[in-house]
Amino acid sequence: MKASFLSFLLFALAPSAWADAEVRYFAGMAGVITPMMEYIPKGEIDADKAARIDHYRVAYDPEGRFSSIKYFSRGRPSSKAYFQTHEVRYSYTGNKRIREYFAEDGAPTPMWRHYYRSQNIQREVYTRVGDVVTLHMYGLDGERVTAGTESFEFRADHSDPRGFIQTQFKADGSPNVIFSYLPFETSVITRNEFGYLYQILQIDPETSEVINHPEAGFAEMRLIFDALGSENGWEFRNAAGDLVDRAATAVDPGYARWIYEFEWEDRALGRFRVLHERYETAAGEQFCSGGIICARQMGVDAHRNVTSSATFGVDGELVIDPDAGFAKVESAYDGRNRRTEQRFYASDGALRTEGVAVRRFVYGEGGAPVVTEFDHTGAKIEKAE
Fold this sequence. Notes:
Elements: H1 2-13, H2 15-19, E1 22-30, E2 40-45, H3 47-50, E3 55-60, E4 66-73, E5 76-77, E6 87-93, E7 96-102, E8 111-113, E9 118-121, E10 123-129, E11 132-138, E12 153-157, E13 164-169, E14 175-176, E15 186-191, E16 197-202, E17 220-225, E18 231-237, E19 257-266, E20 271-280, E21 295-300, E22 306-312, E23 328-333, E24 339-345, E25 358-363, E26 369-374
């Protein structure tokens, strides 16, 4: 009797210890292109390593399912996670799996991922009936919401041996595309031999046959992940599996391969200092976006803050990004990962002479920055009232 009461008391006083049967630590998160794929932590580390570097703390329930995922930077809770909040908590009821998102202080907060194109989703409810999983999204007020891509509902049919068939629908029930860059309405999503995202295949909804998309000009987007979960680029292929250039009618047309090359800090943990990006046509020739930008480069620090970004031309020279108005930008950060300064450069490598050359940020007690701008001579730019 005493033993039973003691067990009950321990359970009542420490429910979290019972809920989290196991805790593991990871350095990063592998990319997914859809909310119908679960998050994939990568680069497992031990608790001692986690105390020294930015990391995810992943808790599992007694059945081996995710219980929570929390992100930490500089030893503190942080919202610089893959899902742009500090924590995602899981709950399981019958045929439902629920993900809810929270800020560093524990308050409910909306998440963000590129496959939604909006930051209005705080809760995701997955319901499984047979082979089909349906996703509905909810905002902070508890009401269902439409994502920025105009999708109101996602479905994944797991009966296909290649992977799962994904469809997405607008609030009026009409079919929707994944997003404009990848305008598939019905697609098969597969994984590679390492368990990471591999293919998004456009299929005929009636026959499930792989077909070329008439506007995009391709049938397949292939993502190149290695055994460690690092993403090394994208490829676009036709229904026969051959490389093909994105069609002139597609968003961002003209190339068949987007290639990533890294300067590694720790490859096993997926940590890099510099990312180089370049483009190739199906014929293996260099491709330059808009006839101007042939390559990009991004530098990051140990906390994944972007410290530099630059665009390059045919011969590797700096070129002005016409959309941004500069060729290179450098950023500095404080001990809380807040940007403190930006410096904008022209194609000659000097501070640009037109517009803002330097931008500085000073943070008050409330956390909102006061921004001051300067030209290339160091003179303060007075803002019009």
